[in-house]
Amino acid sequence: MKGFGGRLALLLLLLNVAVLGTGIGLEHYRQTGNMLVGYNADKITLLRSPAGERPGMDGSGGNVSEPEPVPAGKDATGEKASHAAATPAGDCLVVRDYNQASHDRLLADLAAAGLRPGQYAIRLDKPLGWWVYIPPEGNEARREALIAVLKAAGVRDMAVIGRGSMTNAISLGMFAEPGQAAAHLAAMQAKGVAGVVYGPRPGMGAARVDLSGMPAQARERLPARLRGGLAACG
Questions:
Q1: Could you tell me if 219 and 115 are in contact, meaning their C-beta atoms sit under 8 angstroms apart?
Q2: From CA 209, how far away is CA 213, in angstroms rounded?
Q3: Where a domain ends, among 12, 31, 66?
Q4: Are residues 198 and 181 in contact, defined by beta-carbon separation less than 8 angstroms?
Q5: Which of 1, 64, 74, 200 is most exposed by smallest CB count within 10 Å?
Q6: Is the predicted pLDDT of residue 62 greater than 80, yes or no?
């Protein structure tokens, strides 16, 4: 009997331990299950949030408004957007019949827009299209007096134009680039020769103006400064 009673007591003890362990496990599962259900519900709420609403970073579910659209012509700070990349006047302009008058006008317009020599380039369709000269004088006596002055200054390279729109003008040299002509003009002035100008030779056709190197500020000012006679390069 003693042996039977001991085994029965041991069996009851094991049953009590099993029941206690089962109860603890069920309680832990119930608590864990509630946490999972709550997490999933929060995820469903997030996915169903209306457009433009997002839960706050602190988990409060506060709304975060969509960014306001940036008005045209301004950057994200509200400042006026830079137009440096835009070229209202175009990077290349063409003057169909380029002559001394259109050359002088173009140089004045470029200078008014803040452009300096070297920030643009003027190219003619024909070679040796630039010259340095003294414009035609009204009478032969005046022309001969100018030739005497040139010779006295040591100028030997000269020619009197005998026909065309520049009859009686005195040519002092022809050049391929306007910079070369401008340098020769400065040399003549340094010799004390007055009344000398440089520009495109008559009948040289169109001129192309390369503006690809001009500063951004000049790009904005130039269209208002141009006085016509120009078109975009084709």
A1: no
A2: 11
A3: 66
A4: yes
A5: 1
A6: no
